[in-house]
Write a structure and sequence with these properties.
The chain has a single domain (about 20-260), classed as Rossmann fold (3-Layer(aba) Sandwich). The radius of gyration is 18 Å and the shape is globular. It has ten helices and seven strands. The termini are far apart. By secondary structure, it is α/β, with parallel strands linked by helices. The protein has a seven-stranded mixed sheet with strand order 3-2-1-4-5-7-6, sandwiched between helices.
Length: about 270
């Protein structure tokens, strides 16, 4: 990536050319394995799933789209980075997935209609105006529809900086990434109070919330054995929705429901 052009014209972080880094650093290691394991347990509990069409916004390499497709959903994957979309096509070619190369902001033009289920995981924190993006998601959601939203937790980022000894940075609240080079600190990390306020403003109710990776990222040493790894997974799942632990998850996972009744017929395109 060219360091002089790390951000899009809108000021958003873009990920062209970073598919391999995402595959290795975020999904190929323990962090990604734990994240996907927790989603596998939590999503069936947090969402009402009946095979309805699903829109995966900023779907990246397609892991979440695959999860929905395996459970009988027809999925539309919206992703702006061409190399990520190419890898998603290769991985999901046999599944009922439609691939669209476009950013979240283009949702009204590229994936219009009202969707009964929208997933937007780890996207808003990379945008210069996450609240406007949140409003766009709400506009695309059917009355009674569900938004599965996952965001990078600003409070957890502060705690992590303190643990690492970055005390002045934490005191100054200088937590945002710059979007430069291949560093993957989000430019707009979010806190729970923001999601609560935006949900109230745009007519959504919070049905459920959970913390993703509430213990893992603070371990002094990684699990030394498979048994220890399994113990960690059990701990994460046991406390991910319990006070006060969920609030320090590296990510916060929400099920948000739009006010009104879901019309029959699913997504209208």
């Amino acid at each position: 990536m060219n360091d002089s052009t790390p951000l899009s014209p809108a000021g958003d972080r873009h990920f062209d050319g970073l598919a391999d880094k995402f595959a290795g650093s975020l999904y190929g290691g323990p962090r990604g394995e734990l994240r996907l394991a927790m989603l596998d347990e939590l999503l069936p509990k947090m969402l009402e799933l009946d095979g309805q069409p699903a829109l995966d916004v900023g779907g990246g390499l397609g892991q979440l789209s695959a999860w929905f497709a395996r459970r009988g959903h027809s999925v539309t994957l919206l992703e702006p980075a061409a190399d990520m979309l190419d890898q998603a096509r290769q991985a999901l070619g046999s599944w009922p997935v439609t691939f669209l190369q476009a950013p979240l902001q283009a949702l009204p033009e590229r994936a219009p209609g009202t969707w009964p289920l929208i997933a937007c995981h780890a996207v808003l924190e990379w945008l210069s105006d996450p609240q406007a993006a949140f409003a766009t998601l709400v506009d695309g959601l059917a009355p009674g529809g569900q938004l599965s939203l996952m965001v990078f937790n600003r409070d957890a980022l502060r705690f992590s900086n303190v643990v690492k000894g970055n005390l002045q940075k934490a005191l100054d609240d200088r937590l945002e990434g710059t979007g430069r080079r291949q560093r993957l600190t989000p430019i707009s990390p979010l806190c729970h109070d923001q999601i609560v306020a935006w949900s109230q403003e745009y007519g959504l109710s919070i049905r459920a919330v959970a913390g993703i990776r509430i213990f893992h990222d603070y371990l002094r040493q990684p699990p030394a054995s498979e048994d220890d790894w399994q113990r960690l997974v059990v701990l994460e799942l046991r406390y991910c929705q319990a006070e006060p632990h969920w609030r320090l998850g590296r990510y916060l996972l929400y099920t948000l429901v739009k006010e009104g009744e879901q019309p029959s017929g699913g997504c209208s395109l």
